[in-house]
Specification:
Layout (H helix, E strand, L loop, with lengths): L11 H11 L8 H9 L7 H10 L1 H14 L10 E10 H7 L6 E4 L22 H30 L1 H4 L5 H12 L8 E9 H12 L4 H14 L14 H18 L13 E6 L3 H12 L5 H8 L4 H12 L16 E9 H7 L6 E7 L9 H5 L3 H21 L13 E9 H11 L6 H17 L13 H9 L19
Antiparallel strand pairs: 1-3, 2-3, 4-5, 5-7, 6-7
Helix pairs in contact: 2-3, 2-4, 6-8, 6-17, 9-10, 12-13, 12-14, 18-19
Length: about 500
């Protein structure tokens, strides 16, 4: 056996320094890795020798990439080329478009931990029109409200959690709670920044989608991204221009929806569930148990299922207990739980959606923001008596939204706040639901996503109690495990005791 480190992420400043000292080098491109790995299936030489050849003949490597990706259709070759990108000064609204791409990594500026400034993006669509002034005036009023709420919330949080506040080490934590609630009044136009890691295959998809997007900020972002990589790696990002599928499909579907749904297409009921389980795998407990037996035996799935259907409840539970017995806090439930699906209709705030969309292995599709769905108001704002003030800003925001929506509808959502809501359809398998629950039901998670994820878990446990017998926030993992097995798991002590008491 032999393992060779072929490469790793390198800061662009280091690469530039190498060229400044040693002269321009054509081989400082991720294309050579793609070209080398593409040849493995047909070239008998050791991989490290193939890589050396690719580095020495960069233009030949580029032609090889273009042939393999374009003519032969092996797009997976492009996945070996990876880029790290600093993306600054985009709106929170467009950040949602950027983070739709599942197989990428993002680390975003958090409005929970950083005090916001007055930086915001004015969409090109309204610049130079009479709408620009009412837009910027409303943003200014929202930002003033943010600072006013933050100061009052900070006093409230320090008073409510006086024991924690007595230790200066906790002050940043407490200030963060105030910030996270104050930000519910800030707009989706607020500037943000993100570090993204993306492979060339996903990069190509992103660029194509962005080139086809109707919003100027998204198209401009796509152009700026392409400029950064077009000279460095021209052979592995080929289909990056606007196309009819991405440009027209959803507009056509919108037209069809209006025809099919009629008067219901734009209706919003005043009574709706924030979390509703709308589809799920029937007989989930039996399917999961049969899948576990299948992987542990030489029997067909049909045979395993026939046996499981005859088991008593204690016998069925024994299968799940065996699957969980050796699990620690950091372990995922077995992959066989992925055969169980759950689909939810959620109505949630922009602030909450910003966290939910991180769960990219789920299938998440969303409608646009709709003021008719109301607003999520942090309980702390109600506790300090500032709900009327908060709603006054929201009502003014809604009027500005309507004014912009009548004239330039595509730019209208920028003015909405983190408290405004949208409808989201999310499908998860049981394994991913465990992950969401463990991370988002934890006491250290933000309260809005805690509420949503807890409600998702409760809905699911009603229809598949066996599958979800070990589900819960990571701070409660030891307790849940002990209730099942009568003793604590080995690593439970790593969880801070009393974590649920940190924030009410």
């Amino acid at each position: 056996m032999k393992v060779i480190l072929a490469g790793y992420n390198m800061d662009i400043a280091v690469l530039q320094d190498i060229q400044d000292k040693g002269g321009k080098r054509e081989d400082l491109t991720p294309e050579v890795i793609s070209a080398a790995y593409a040849r493995i299936s047909r070239d008998p030489r050791p991989i490290n020798e193939i890589r050396k050849s690719a580095r020495e003949e960069v233009e030949k490597s580029r032609r090889s990439n273009a042939t393999i990706i374009f003519k032969m259709g092996h797009h997976s070759v492009a996945e070996h080329a990876v880029f790290n990108l600093d993306i600054l000064g985009i709106s929170r609204y467009v950040m949602e478009e950027l983070e739709k791409f599942r197989l990428c990594s993002y680390t975003e500026k958090s409005q929970r931990y950083i005090t916001l400034d007055n930086d915001f993006v004015t969409p090109k669509e309204i610049i130079g029109t009479p709408l620009e002034k009412i837009f910027t005036d409303m943003i200014a009023e929202q930002n003033q409200a943010y600072f006013a709420l933050y100061e009052k919330l900070k006093v409230h949080v320090f008073s409510k959690h006086a024991e924690l506040a007595s230790d200066p080490k906790n002050h940043n934590l407490l200030e963060g709670w105030a910030k996270e609630d104050a930000r519910y009044i800030t707009s989706l136009a607020t500037e943000s920044q993100v570090g993204e890691t993306i492979n060339a295959r996903n990069f190509e998809l992103l660029l194509r989608r962005f080139a086809s997007h109707p919003l100027s900020e998204v198209r401009d972002l796509g152009k700026a991204l392409f400029e950064q990589i077009s000279e460095v790696a021209p052979s592995i990002v080929l289909f990056h221009e606007s196309n009819d599928f991405d440009k027209n499909t959803f507009n056509q579907l919108k037209k069809i929806a209006g025809e099919v749904l009629g008067e219901h297409s734009n209706s919003v009921s005043g009574n709706f569930q924030e979390v509703k389980l709308v589809e799920y795998t029937q007989n989930a407990d039996a399917i999961a148990a049969a899948s576990l037996l299948h992987v542990a035996s030489n029997c067909s799935y049909e045979q395993c299922r026939a046996v499981v259907d005859k088991l008593s409840a204690p016998e069925l539970k024994k299968i799940f207990m065996s699957a969980w017995k050796n699990m620690q806090l950091y372990d995922s439930v077995p992959r066989e739980f992925e055969y169980i699906d759950l689909t939810y209709n959620l109505v949630l705030s922009s602030a909450c959606f910003g966290q939910l969309k991180r769960h990219r292995m789920s299938t998440i599709t969303a409608q646009g923001y709709d003021p008719k769905l109301g607003n999520t108001i942090p309980s702390a704002i109600k506790e300090i008596g500032m709900e009327p003030f908060f709603m006054e800003i929201v009502e003014k925001t809604n009027k500005v939204y309507e004014a912009i929506n009548k004239e330039i509808s595509i730019a209208a959502p920028y003015i909405l706040t983190n408290s405004h809501r949208k409808r989201v359809l999310i499908k998860v398998n049981a394994r991913e639901l465990y992950h969401i629950s463990r991370l988002r039901e934890d006491a250290h998670a933000q309260w809005d996503i805690q509420n949503i994820s807890r409600a998702m878990t409760l809905e699911a446990k009603k229809v598949m109690p066996g599958v979800l017998g070990l589900i819960g926030g990571k701070d409660c993992y030891g307790e849940i495990y002990k209730n099942l097995f009568g003793h604590m798991p080995k690593v439970a002590q790593a969880v801070l005791p009393g974590a649920r008491k940190i924030k009410s």
